[in-house]
Amino acid sequence: MDSLCDRFPLHRAVFEGNLRKVSSCLRTYDVGERDVHGNTPLHLAVLLGHRECVYLLLAHKAPVKVKNNFGWTPLAEAISYGDRQIITSLLKKLKEQSREALEERRPQLTTALQELGDFYVEINWDFQSWVPLLSRILPSDTCKVYKKGCSIRMDSTLVDFSDMKWQRGDLTFIFNGDARGKQSFAVLDNEKKVFQRLRTEALIDNLSKGGGNIMDSLPETTRRSSLNPPPKTDMTWDEYLLYDTERLPPIGRPMVLKEDKKTVKAHVAMSEDFPLSVDLILKVLEVVAPFKHFNKLKEFVAMKLPAGFPVRIEIPVFPTITARVTFRDFKSCSEIPSSMFFIPRDYKVSHAFVTRRITFDPSRPHAWKTT
């Protein structure tokens, strides 16, 4: 028993809120180590509300995205605890670690793209519904994807589709695997002949809010006071370690469990003769898929599918709406102009894109609004 309780000195120091001991242990022990319940030292610091320990662990690059045995990340536990300062610190570190992870994956991604042949393919989106007349107004789009070397270009007119709202525009996304940071990703508004250079995560946030300047597009934050902290646990370190995970009492805020199950039916047409592979298209989608509907496609393609390539997929995106995605017109191209992957000289830097938001009102099936 003593050997088990002595196995995680850093965890114990955090559990007991001994900041000096935490600082000492960080010189020797792995800041991302998981204990018998899957908790990292950062998990424990957040669960117990030890704010100074949280700051110290984050300064030593404690991982923010790792999950414990219950499936929760430190950020999820922080949101449950309700301390706004801790949540803010974790969010900042999460963005920083996400950027670092992307840069770490970049060489492998660039090499994989370089080894692939150059090609052109179209991804057709057709949204349908069994609701009368709704299918007539739902959007469709044909995304044109060009790949040359480690560069990818995608032309699209459907910017976003979520919550029964969709946005139209004439946008081009260009990824240059040889460039670094903001220089690697650019989005062009072909109607106004302007462009922005954005990091991928900033682009996703920007487009999901309807374009414009990134900071201007963020809604004004509604300030709330932190939640009242949960009662302090009277559990000792030894008791914490000796509990079975399934029977472990809450050491943070007590859990309120709600179970919700959904059955999703999807249809897929596979072809063993299609020249693309699933691995290839996943690499492409990882680069040029900043839209929510593309994320659904990526999640589906990443599933264990039958042999071949999914040339046509029907996936539900809303309770009454299905997206039919078709891969077509694949061409191996050795003569794609390099100029397609550069920003035209007459395009100017801008913070405002032209997009048209269309909203459907289910209570008025004959009416829709364009803004």
Automatic annotation (TrEMBL):
Main location, first listed in the record: endoplasmic reticulum
The UniProt record lists the keyword Calcium: no
Localization, UniProt: Endoplasmic reticulum membrane
One GO process term, biological-process aspect: protein retention in ER lumen
Keyword tags: ANK repeat, Chaperone, Endoplasmic reticulum, Membrane, Repeat
SMART domains named in the record: ANK
ANK repeats: 37-69
PANTHER family named among the record's database cross-references: ANKYRIN REPEAT DOMAIN-CONTAINING PROTEIN 13 (PTHR12447), ANKYRIN REPEAT DOMAIN-CONTAINING PROTEIN 13C (PTHR12447:SF25)
Protein name as annotated: Ankyrin repeat domain-containing protein
Any GO molecular function: signaling receptor binding
Pfam families (UniProt xref): Ank_2, ANKRD13_C
One cellular component term from this protein's GO annotations in UniProt: endoplasmic reticulum membrane
Domain spans labelled Ankyrin repeat: 153-197, 231-335
Entry function: Acts as a molecular chaperone for G protein-coupled receptors, regulating their biogenesis and exit from the ER.
SUPFAM superfamilies assigned: Ankyrin repeat
